[in-house]
Design goal:
Elements: H1 16-22, H2 29-35, H3 54-71, H4 75-85, E1 89-96, H5 105-124, E2 128-135, H6 141-144, E3 146-150, E4 155-159, H7 180-197, H8 201-210, H9 217-228, E5 235-238, H10 242-247, H11 249-257, H12 259-275, E6 291-294, E7 301-303, E8 305-307, E9 311-314, E10 317-320, H13 321-330, E11 335-337, H14 342-349, E12 352-356
Parallel strand pairs: 1-2, 1-12, 2-5
Antiparallel strand pairs: 3-4, 6-7, 6-11, 8-9, 9-10
Helix pairs in contact: 3-4, 7-8, 8-9, 11-13
């Protein structure tokens, strides 16, 4: 077998910014270092891992241990949670809670986080722990209610056909749809996935993780990823609960109180990128915010937008800034970060040294 190595620029669909980041010799290195502080293949990131208070770490460990119990995590993950309590840093990755584990890149991302944590521990002498962040607060159901598997001739996509009445966070949806017909669809999907995979231990694992009464997309996914990487102590985290939102509440407060300044900064960064020949990384419109709000009655996840006179709107409801801050104080779990704010929210909760996207 002949092995060939090609530069990233030969891969179809790569962006100019990604190529510059991975091939800095041909890029505007000064700008790249302002936007990305560390070299892509070095360990500079491991030399400045953040610190958190012991009180914060105790709360974090308690929440993670509770989830470890519900995900069926093994001893290695529990040991790593104790390492986080006692000062370890985290190498974090994550993915949407797609059916049966989702695309194969999920496995690659988790394995990379594990290896990076191992290498950083060896290089620095400080303990680094791999953490897998479940993106359970997203409401794009079409993206996660499916998995594509190989047949002998093509890709076959399996779907549960979940159909909630409103755009709620996908992690909370039961995989059986809370109906007998939904349970039959789930059973058929597990059977067909098992047939395509080849009926091995993974097939038994799918049924064990997903075919328990009341299982949600987040629970099934968390059990599966915990089991697959049990030997390596991968810590699985679902941050949708009140406890994690309380730990990350300062991020939500800043996003509310400084929404205008954040919008301006995002627009300026987009202009800077395009002026240097790259594309804007995010689309920001007037009134843009970094937050969603969960409706108190329906649980629908609705984008928060700023309107005139220091007011905000989510769905058909209008709020003042003071009312949003009151919601944050009393019910922080109702505030939800968008994709831009999620890494900042994550870093407020975890001692994140590196994130693998």
């Amino acid at each position: 077998m002949e092995v060939q190595c090609h530069p990233i620029s030969t891969a179809p669909g790569t962006t100019a910014l990604l190529r510059a980041f991975l091939e800095p010799a041909v890029a505007d290195t000064a700008s790249l270092r302002r936007w990305y502080g560390s070299e892509p293949f070095g360990f500079g990131w491991a030399k400045s891992a953040p610190e958190l208070s012991s009180e914060h770490r105790d709360k974090l460990a308690a929440l993670l241990l509770d989830q470890a119990e519900r995900f069926g995590a093994g001893d290695a993950a529990r040991e790593n949670i104790e390492h986080l309590r006692n000062g370890a840093a985290a190498v974090v990755t994550g993915q949407q809670v797609a059916l049966f584990g989702g695309p194969l890149l999920t496995i690659l991302k988790a394995a990379t986080a594990i290896r990076k944590a191992q290498d950083a521990s060896a290089v620095t002498g400080r303990k680094y722990v791999p953490v897998f962040w479940l993106a359970s607060e997203d409401h794009d159901l079409a993206e996660v209610d499916q998995i594509s598997l190989l047949t002998k001739t093509e890709l076959e996509t399996l779907k549960l056909g979940l159909d909630p009445a409103r755009p709620v966070p996908v992690g909370s949806l039961r995989v059986d749809g809370d109906t007998e017909a939904g349970w039959a669809k789930l059973d058929a999907a597990i059977e067909r996935a098992s047939e395509l995979i080849g009926w091995g231990p993974v097939s038994d694992l799918l049924r064990e993780c997903y075919a328990q009464p009341g299982t949600t997309l987040a629970q099934g996914y968390g059990r599966l990823i915990s089991a697959v990487f049990a030997e390596f102590g991968l810590v699985v985290l679902d941050a949708s609960s009140r406890g994690f939102h309380e730990l990350g509440a300062p991020v939500f407060r800043a996003a509310i109180e400084h929404a205008g300044a954040l919008e301006t900064a995002l627009l300026e960064r987009s202009e800077e990128l395009t002026a240097r020949g790259y594309h804007a990384q995010v689309l920001v419109s007037p009134g843009h915010s970094l937050l969603f709000l969960l409706d108190a009655e329906t649980g629908a996840r609705q984008p928060l937008r700023r309107i005139e006179n220091d007011a905000w709107k989510a769905g058909g409801q209008t709020y003042s800034t003071e009312e949003l801050l009151a919601i944050l104080e009393s019910s922080p779990e109702r505030l939800s970060p968008n994709a831009l704010l999620r890494p900042v929210f994550q870093d407020a909760i975890l001692p994140t040294a590196a994130y693998i996207g």
